[in-house]
Amino acid sequence: MRRLPSLYISHGSPMTALQPGQVGLRLAELAADLPRPRAIVIASAHWLSDLPRVGAHPQPPTIHDFGGFPEALYRIRYPAPGDPVLAAQVLQRLQDAHLDAQLDVSRGLDHGAWVPLRLLFPDASIPVVPISLQPQRGPMHQLALGRALAPLRDEGVLLIGSGSITHNLHDFGTYQDGKEAPYVRPFINWVEQRLAASDVDALLDYRRQAPYAARAHPTDEHLQPLHFAMGAAGTGALGAQRIDAGIDAGMLAMDLYRFDGERS
pLDDT tens digit string along 99-153? Predict the structure, then answer.
């Protein structure tokens, strides 16, 4: 089977499920260009824990981890099967990389997972294994998680980090009538340039080096899935390709990235 890329997806608001907009179109195009995975491992900004946890539920429930949205959103289900055998393999790979991890047999799919997966693979037939992130441990830790799992790309497994390339909900509703937050484009342009250069060190140090980093990300959890996806690209060149999916609400950049790594 052809090696799969790893992906970073900006999943946006839960309303993306009802109003997919540009990101829905871009994800459908991306899915059409990929070999069909045999399974998916996804690290979402909405599953955080002290230790890495690997979801081993045979039929992960759809988690509606939000409030105050239209009733139609709560009726959506993404009934993809789980894959306990793959979950055990993921756990073993993490432990082999000296990353203390645990299985979680009860975890379902939060909206950071099921919203983009529903746009990528609407038939919900591909098994999904969620994995938690530990933003308090810093970007290098998330990079290590991805690198430990990178060989799975040669086994038909699609590795995804799901977050948002900019994520400052304090600014939600501030930018109206097509106006954009002034920090969004400088930040996403810097990320694109550093990824194109495979400058992993700068991206790990984004808090110090990126323009407007604190405005673009008051907290780390929505960018660090990018580091997971970078790690899953392997240890050489990232082979990063940016897919522009627009800017929602003037402050949520919806960039997608695929990482093909070094060609074998």
Answer: 999 999 999 999 999 999 999 999 999 999 999 999 999 999 999 999 999 999 9
Helix-strand-coil split of the chain, %, nearest 5: 40, 20, 45
Query: Which tokens hold the place of 172?
Result: 């939600």
Chain-centroid distance, C-alpha 252: 15
For residue 80, what are its two tokens?
A: 């993809």
How far is the C-alpha of 244 from the C-alpha of 14, rounded, in Å? 19
Say what the pTM is. Answer: 0.97
Q: What is the pLDDT of residues 46-81, one digit of tens each?
A: 999 999 999 999 999 999 999 999 999 999 999 999
Residues 182 and 203: beta-carbon distance below 8 Å: no
Structure tokens at 216: 């673009």
Nearest to 229 by CA among 253, 255, 193, 263: 255
